[in-house]
Structure formats: C-alpha cells, structure tokens
Amino acid sequence: MTPIPSSSASPNGQAPYSNGTSLHGEVSSSAENYGPGGSSPSTSGYPVNGFPAPPYPNAHNEEIVNHLYHAGFQTGNYADTMLHVHQNVYRLHAIILSRSPYLAHLMSTSPLSGGQRVIYVQLDREPEVTQEGFAIALGYLYSAVSLNLIRPDNARAVLAAGCLLGGMEDLCEYSYQACRRSISVDAIGGWLDFVDSIPGSGDGTATPNMPPTSVFGLYAQRLRDDLFHFLVVTLPEILEVQNPQPDPSTGTSGRDVLLQVYSRVPFEMFKAAVESPTFQIGSDQARFKFAKEAIELRKRGISRGLGAEETVVLAFGGSNFGGSAVHITRKMRKRPLWKVNS
Q: Are 244 and 253 in contact (CB under 8 A)?
C-alpha cells in the first residue's frame, strides 16, 4: 500500500512523528548564531579560545536549490503531484507547490489517486497566462533561476502567471519592471491592445482605471499608468514633436507618428491624454489642432462602426475642463426614426 503524504503541522523529527533522531531543533538559516568575526557564541563566562568558527555554508543552500530545480522541476524525479495545464502535464512536488496559495487550494480540494495527487489548472478565462509564462512561474517555485528566462516579449505573461499563482512577489515585481522597460515606439501597438482588452469606465468622463478583478491585480493599474506616462510625456520627447522637420530616412515627422499612435489609443485613455496638462504637444491651439487631426484618423480606424461620434472643443479665454482648454467628448449617434404611413 502506498503511504499517503502527511499534512500534519508537527515538526519533522519530533514526537509523535519521529523521523530519525530527535536532536534537531529549529535551525536558523543565517549566520546570526555565530558571534563577531564568525566565532561560536560562548555558553560560559570564560572568553572564547581564539579559534574562529567556519564560515556559514551558503554554497550548500545553493546546491540544494539547484538540485531541486534540475532534479525536481526539470526532470520531475520523485514527483507526488501531477499538474495538468493547457495541453501539458507536469510531474511536481506538493511541498514545493504549496508555496503558491492558488495551487495549495487546488491540492487541498483534489483527492489522492494511487498515492499521487492530480490537479487541473483551467486558464480558458486567462488569455494573458501563456504556456511559457506559466512554466516560468512554476519553475520559480523551485528556484529563482527562472528569472533568467524572462524577456521583454514574455514578461507580461510571466507577470500574469505570477499574480494568478500568488506567493511570488519578487517574480511579479521583476516581471513588472521588465514590462515597463519594454514599452517603446515599436511595441506600443501591443500595449494599446492590452489596455483595450480590459474594460474601462466607458464614458470618457474620468481617467480610465483597470478593474480590480483583472488577473494582474494592482499591477494592471501600474502598467496603465506607465503606458499613460509614455504616451503623454516620453513619446512626444522621443519623437521630437516640437520639431516640424520630417525624418530624412522616412519622410515623416515625429508629429505624424504621434498622430498615428493616438489614432489607435482607446477612447478613455485618448481623452485623458489629450486633456492632460503634462501632454508635451505645445500651446492650447496646437493641442486642439492635434486632437482634431487625431479624431479624423480615428473615424477611419478605431472608432469606425461603433455608432459613436468623437468631437473636440477648445475653450478660448480660459480653462474650463479640469485644467485643460481642450475637451474631448463622445456621444452616441441617434438612430434615424422611420415614419410608417398607415
């Protein structure tokens, strides 16, 4: 009969669940038990004899972690838990998976079968969690070496997986920093699609916020803020929109590129960006002209067929719209009423 792994909270090696000798108490994982200079603390009133204690063996801990990652995660040796996700099956270890509150809950509600526990992770409603991102987050439960696998193109998927699994704030913060560094002129389209995929306020009357139900949690709003800052401050500076001279290699000016980008921005963020006092576009007249041209482009693109009409208003003689003289509005077009003759 295959023994069932114990979930008791009793310390290993202590009665009644003795695991060999009972001489092992709780051991600190640092060198704080050593005196100054690495010497062992004295238990008597006499001074120490002058022989230094050996240095704390940190290399031993690294060897254990490396062994867990390679033998435990990469090859699945001595696994007691089968994890099914997407079309993949992982041979893993319950004691390691329990570091994740999400996986710990799945294991606690999944019965044992033949001495092994089988759990299923359903990601149909989490499109941001890719196979690669989930695998990196799983590996992080075993070792921080998984951080070396994070790249600009997979950082958001790793962040999503880390937020879903929980218990890995270092991984999430590392992935988040990689995400914000990846926001660029070339990658702006993907980030705009990301913001557009999560519903905002919808009426354009307030600065858009990410809903707390997003798998990204608070990181969703942080990423939204980073993208917003990129649009209103960083991007105009990079494109040198104040310089009307076109790029000799492309024949287009930075302002033209900025117009193309703003023609794709979701309405709530477009409104907030154009009205923002930090938008680096120039005078109120320049802001109004830019908004008007952007709206014309949007009519042929992102706002086409939505049944809504976007307009821009310039308040001459003062700022009447929250610190901005330019105000963007959107209203639904009225459907024509057909008169039926009797």
A: yes
Answer yes or no: are the C-beta atoms of 214 and 200 closer than 8 Å. no
d(CA 146, CA 140): 5
What is d(CA 131, CA 89) in angstroms, rounded to the nearest whole number? 11
Long-range contact list for 297-306, CB < 8 A, 24+ apart? 297/259, 297/260, 297/262, 297/263, 298/263, 298/270, 301/263, 301/264, 302/263, 302/264, 302/265, 302/266, 302/267, 303/267
pTM: 0.77
- For residue 16, whether the previous peptide bond is cis, meaning omega lies within 30 degrees of 0, is yes
**H or E element: which one contains 84?**
strand 81-85
CA distance 271 to 293: 14
Long-range CB contacts (within 8 A, 24+) of 105-109: 107/81
In this structure, what token pair is assigned to residue 200?
């905002």
* All residues at 6 or more sequence positions from 11 whose CB lies less than 8 Å from its CB, including other chains: 26
* Distance from C-alpha of 196 to C-alpha of 222, rounded to nearest angstrom: 15
| Contact criterion met (CB below 8 Å) for 83 and 121 | yes
pLDDT in tens, the chain (342 residues): 444 444 555 454 444 544 454 444 555 555 445 555 555 555 566 667 778 877 777 888 899 999 999 999 999 999 999 999 988 999 999 999 999 999 999 999 988 877 889 999 999 889 999 999 999 999 999 999 999 999 999 999 999 999 999 999 999 999 999 999 999 999 999 999 998 887 554 444 344 554 445 899 999 999 999 999 999 999 999 998 877 777 666 668 889 999 999 999 999 999 999 999 999 888 888 999 999 999 999 988 765 555 668 888 877 555 555 556 889 888 876 655 565 665
Distance CA 191, CA 197 (A): 10
